[in-house]
Amino acid sequence: MNKKIHIFVTNDDGISAKGLAALTEMVRPFGALTVVAPKEPQSGMSGAMTIGTPLRLYEHSREEGLERYVCTGTPVDCVKIGLSQFFSEQKPDLLVSGINHGANTSAAVFYSGTLGATGEGILYGVPSIGFSLSTPHNPDANFDSCIVYGRKILEQYLIHPPSPDVFINVNFPDIPNDQIKGIRFARQGKGAWIKEFEKRRDPHGYDYYWLTGEFRNDEPEALDADHNLVNLGYVSIVPHQFDTTCYPEVERLGNVWKFL
Amino acid sequence: MNKKIHIFVTNDDGISAKGLAALTEMVRPFGALTVVAPKEPQSGMSGAMTIGTPLRLYEHSREEGLERYVCTGTPVDCVKIGLSQFFSEQKPDLLVSGINHGANTSAAVFYSGTLGATGEGILYGVPSIGFSLSTPHNPDANFDSCIVYGRKILEQYLIHPPSPDVFINVNFPDIPNDQIKGIRFARQGKGAWIKEFEKRRDPHGYDYYWLTGEFRNDEPEALDADHNLVNLGYVSIVPHQFDTTCYPEVERLGNVWKFL
User: Fold this and answer.
1) Contact of B201 with B144, CB cutoff 8 Å
2) Is the Cβ–Cβ distance between A20 and A37 less than 8 Å?
């Protein structure tokens, strides 16, 4: 790299996650790092922020080119408080989030705390990338191939940056480096979860419900959908826009809805 | 109305919010209602779902054409558990969320629990609309004009339904019925919050941080942006897409990022 940049690092699995250590290793050759990660796991927190209770922010560790902090809130809170406390003069050059223990493809994008952080980054004008490994939430997952392929993607990102209103969503297959078939651009695939709740009865006779479920793939044949590409052994890259206005429907409905 | 429909009602301010009662009144002439609302206020919860703790679901009240339930989770949890427990055979015809005590325009769309519920509705194939009143979170806000204007919008919605992958975001200005200037289609406006944290010291000498902030309008002159239209006295309607893939960037970056 020609020029060292300042990189904001966060995740949703929390400060102790192996995926965060892997992400730190992946991006460290590119610049100086400020890590602000959640104290507790925050999977499924989407773009949630904490309004009703105050946050704490602690220094975790500090060495040359790598400062680590812990925040008691969500991934979005980590980005908000990190940018406000450490980058009030000059924004970071890049925000990276992950590496998530679990895929963030298809409908998972909607719930993802990893990608909530990248949406927050884009809103505040910081180029942002989320990384996720398609592993069944294994805390001891192997991130070696993510580091290799993530660096290839970062190099291209820095040479040809995306539009500033777009965050990048990268998903890695959980296979060894030499079995990865390549890197493919994709779109967000279609699918949803079914059988989502397991109903149980507590010792006092009252019902409670665990969120669970299995993924229903609504387009198993689509070769441009992120979830299918990852399942086939490709690294998928999807650019997502922060502005979710559906412009064609603004136009169409604007012409047919009549208000007297 | 020709045909009574089955409507799922939820919100993010919780079962006791005045805005939920107003929404119930707004949509009651259109069909039979099943309300599943959060037990506690869930503002700013976006598309968050509850993974690590189980949920409770209680019956709140029941009368002809109107069943009310309370769920201990987020707005997305309310939609998930409500659809799974009460609509496993036949989906509701419509989902409505709100009326939020506070605007959900511009960047607020990203954080909104009201709109998290509508995103979840669309994911599960239920046509979904979010309603919000641009009031500074006043618990005793006046929703009278929302009821009048919301019904006009619902009538058009049912005659000319939006695309099934789009949820509708309606924001009302907080002014009397006869001062509303009209209903306008819009796009998601540009802006963000600044001065977001108030740092305090606790009695034990440790710092903590309250999320606060003021909105920075990045395009105060734009007359097609939802936040400006509402400030000018219009009801704004924005269609939002669930699939947030930025297709032009898939194409453009796909051509310039080179992987060896």
Assistant:
1) no
2) yes
**How far A149 CA lies from chain B's nearest CA (Å)?**
9
Contact B185 A43 (CB under 8 A): no
- Residues of chain B neighbouring A57 (CB-CB closer than 8 A): 207, 209
Of B239, B96, B237, B95, the residue nearest B171 (C-alpha): B237
Structure tokens at A81: 């408080």
Instruction: Give the H/E segment covering residue B133.
Output: strand B128-134
Query: Which helix (H) or strand (E) element contains residue A166?
Result: strand A166-173
**DSSP letter for each residue of A25-89:** HHHGGGEEEEEEEESS--TT-TT----SS-B-EEEEEEETTEEEEEESS-HHHHHHHHHHHH-SS
Which residues in chain B touch residue A242, judged by CB atoms under 8 angstroms apart? Answer: 110
B85 SS3 class:
helix
Strand order in the sheet with B182-185: B57-63, B66-71, B31-38, B5-10, B94-101, B128-134, B166-173, B234-241, B182-185
ipTM: 0.95
Fold of B5-189+220-256: Stationary-phase Survival Protein Sure Homolog; Chain: A, (3.40.1210)
Whether A113 and A20 have beta carbons less than 8 Å apart is answered as no
* Contact check, Cβ <8 Å, A46/B49: yes
Closest CA to A71 of A83, A89, A62: A83
Extents of the domains making up chain B: 5-189+220-256
Whole-model pTM: value is 0.96
How does residue B1 score in pLDDT terms, banded at 50, 70 and 90? very low
Helix (H) or strand (E) holding B211: strand B207-211
Q: pLDDT tens, B82-140? A: 999 999 999 999 999 999 999 999 999 999 999 999 999 999 999 999 999 999 878 89
Residues A20-54 pLDDT 10s: 999 999 999 999 999 999 999 999 999 999 999 99
- The whole-angstrom distance between residue A86's C-alpha and the CA centroid of its chain comes to 21
Q: Which residues of chain A have pLDDT under 50?
A: 1
Please give the pLDDT value at position A1. Answer: 47
Q: Are B216 and B187 in contact (CB under 8 A)?
A: no
